[in-house]
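Researcher: Let's try something more involved. This one mixes different molecule types, so please make sure each is placed in the same coordinate frame as the others.
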Amino acid sequence: MNDLSRQLAQQARREAERATPAFSEALHARIMRAVDAADAHAAEAEGGALPRRRPALVIGLRHPWRVALAAAACVALALSPVGLRLLGPQAPKVVITPTPVHPAPVAVMQADPFVLNRKARQVNDQVKDVVETAMAEQQWAGLDQDVRVATRYLVDQVPFRAAFENGGREH
Amino acid sequence: MSRSFNLPAHAATSEAAGAFMRDEELAGKARDGSRESFDELARRFQVRLLRFLQRHVSAAADAEDLLQEAFVRAYQNLNRYDAKRPFATWLFTIAHRIAVSHHRRNKSAAHAQEVIADRMRGAEYAEPGREIADAEIKQIFWETARRVLSPEQFDATWLFYVEEMPAKQIAEVMGRSWVSVKTILFRARKRLAPGLQSLEESEEPQGRNVTNARMTLARV
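Model: All components are placed in one shared frame. Result:
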């Protein structure tokens, strides 16, 4: 420090010390009352159950920039394609659709023709069996032939594409 | 870097009670929940902080209010204090911010300067309640500093000369870079130096040291 600086320093210190106030016990008591009041208020705000002082590591506010950086990283991840894929389209969508009354005809119309054919034959057989069984049980004498014809006719009326295409011929 | 300072009167109690702990140690204990440690810190720093804050306000009551606010805020934020850093720097940082906020809220700077200058001449703070003749205690240096320096230059000058803080700590207190503080101090000295032509020190018959400064204040 050169002479001028030293001179300034001495003058500054001298004057400051001369104007220094004396220590005040009353002022100190007032300050500590304010500190206690602030402490009590903070404890009340926390519900009273938590200790006012927590270790610095737990609070983790000594380096707020780290918290900000972590938050920014989370936001970036959420908005990134990976994040969107995880959070987005896989989520099940709630779609309200009317309950189909007759779902079978739609399925039948859209089915493969060969499969449809097979299905039609199966249904034909099933209906025929049921009717013939019923006839046998009823012992309709002399009427079984007529019944068979009638049954065949009835079955043929069912709007299966294959039956229609076959012109009502037996399988 | 801890500044050595004269122990206030109450320090005798601390010494009698046991070890005289460093400010940083006390702050660490206060951070862990020791109210007595904070009480001791408040005692140690009351005068220094009040003296610093008085330079920013026009009324003694305002300075005491700011002092109280500074200690309350320090207590509430002890969890953020790093014991590896000087406690004085940390505390003065809080006080400086409070003073700046207060100054912004009360922007009648011209009026405040006049009032401060009057108070400094009357040396009301030296011994409250006692009238002191203008000739006995002069605040020529600080009166001049208040008039010719910016608030920033004034604070840096105070912290450097009175609190004996190095530029690096002043930078921390004021939230500036170390280089910026060096520049601020340099410019402050340049503005103050032309006003100081000679200093004479003489003693009064009663043995009191009085500085009779013969200055030709260059109006800047």
